[in-house]
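Review form for a predicted model. The reviewer records the input and the model, then writes brief findings.
Reviewer: anonymous (R2)
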Amino acid sequence: MICVTIARGSPAEVREALAALEGKVAMAELRLDLLTDPDPEPLLAGRPLPVLVTCRAAEEGGGWKGDHPSRLALLQRAIDRGAEWVDVEWGYEDRLVRRPGTRLLVSRHDFRGVPPDLPGLAREMAKSGADAVKIAVTANRLADSLAVFDLLAGAKTPIVALAMGPKGIPTRILGPSRGSLWTYAARTPSEAAAPGQLDWRTLAEVYGLPLDRPPEELAALAGSPALTSLGPAVHNAAFTSMGLPRLYLPLETDSMAEALAVAGPLGIRAFSVTIPLKEEAFRLADRLEPEARPIGAVNTLTLSGDGWVGANTDVLGIVGPLKRALGSLKGRSVLVLGAGGAARAAAHVATWSGARVTISSRNRERGEALAREVPLGAAVLDWEARLSLAPGEFAAIVNATPLGMAPWLAGETPIPADRLPRGALVFETVYRPLRTRLVREAEGAGLSVVTGDEMFLAQAAGQLCRWTGRDAALGVLRGAFDRERARRLASFERHVVLFGFRGSGKSTVGALLASWLGRPFLDTDRRIEEEAGRSTAEIFALEGEGGFREREALAVREAAGSRPSAVIALGGGAVLYPENVRVLRERGTLIWLDTPLDVLRGRLAADPATASTRPALLGTDAITELEGLFAAREPAYRALGAIRVPAGPPPEAVARRVADEIELLQIQNEGEVQDDERRQVAD
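Model under review:
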């Protein structure tokens, strides 16, 4: 079962979190050492689901800053109030008075690695007389998960066991199906209370927890980054649609040999291979499919009777979308950026299709080596020379570098906007973020673009065919990809606050975005009018601007304090008042819909009825007023330092641009979470 850790919040926020989890997970853990108010009594009253109460000591990776007697007193209070479970560190259990109805879990954490005799440790802990024991170790290598699974397989007492850290992810996903009483999960992606902890929706919706029994076979993604990949969502959806009892896991590693070493014990019979392991996988494969041999890299491994068979389905991911975009490649010039596994596939498939290929790599030696390996050879372009491409010089530019990839390179691009050559198709191999900086800037320059999802889904279909012997339904893969991307976007925890000039489309764009994200839409101007029972223009006429601004400040405070997170559309003047901005920024992200003046004029002129309901602040007609406000407010909007989104028509495109910015914010947060040393705390 899944136990969701609630590791932050006030008592009211904790109760709200518990209510939101009712019926969705089996249990919640209350981490008193990490909450703003550690008193368990108000948290336990009227709880809607069973709870495990923990107050973790600092030496066991917790956040408790007080003394042990005070900490143990809180746990005793939880016992006295009937908490279903209480977790206390091994050695302190005899200081608590047991009560009927509350079960005791004794725990031990090791942040250095894996102790030499886990079964012996579990037996010693069981002598405490606790109802269950918990052992959390740190996985420094993938094989450390095997020690946890061996412990679970031989356990003679109820046990919770897991390996912390990215390399311990398999224990968090498979642990309950292999004997662990539960697995810990975060409430949201940003609230992980321990290294490697996944959020509960990912465990439930991507990996299908709780699992009734262990999957019959496993597939895995090997590489780095692996944990942020959409591969598990896509492949697990495909396995389900095929009726296959298989599960696809991420293995975070920079060694294909390490991944292969744990494949047998874990039951892995198929691998997807991502950067930086495609060339190592080529070398380690026992047998190669014919088209993989000349490429020198594989992205797919399948276990057969004679060992691991290596294939390169990146070829399928490139040739189909490229030919659909350009038609015949014969005689066309293609520039491939990079010299890794994806670049090797792109260079070979382009030459097989009759194109003239040029390689440009940050590592010139690797680029030259790849150029020599390409059939009929390829030209080499200095990396710096990519910034001086002539219009029409290349029919297509393939970005096969990780520049633009989540999480750490998401803001980068191989070719800046002002250096993109006119007339070239831009082919992006990065799919997360879907609309990389390269994609957005290429579209802004009027270039044709193939986004990374096209390659990703085509190569995934090729992998599934090799693993299952059956053709994968591309519609299933596309649906899973889109659902997972939407799910991640919907997990953005802050309000999305839209502001801009009259006519910038805040209401239309906001309603679209709210529908996509599955959250409420709040329009402060509409709220003011509903509350006052009159139009904005009438409020200005009867109460003056001061009266309107008072109503607006109240509407802003209400919107900012609303739960769950919403999409909020503001009146154009709301952000000119520092108090409104301060309140909104506490729980929201400000996004400026920057619309050109001529577009605003056109919209206002085309809708005189709407214009007549607006206040004439300058005492002039609506168009003249708009021009005056534009001149006055544009510098103020710019000075806010908000996210700027170009807001030309149509509204669907603007809403998509806002969604792109949200995805980038989430990706940046992923990088911060992974780099954040304070997350070295225990489950």
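Findings: The two ends are 15 Å apart (CA to CA).
Further findings: The first helix runs from residue 11 to 21.
Recommendation: see findings above.
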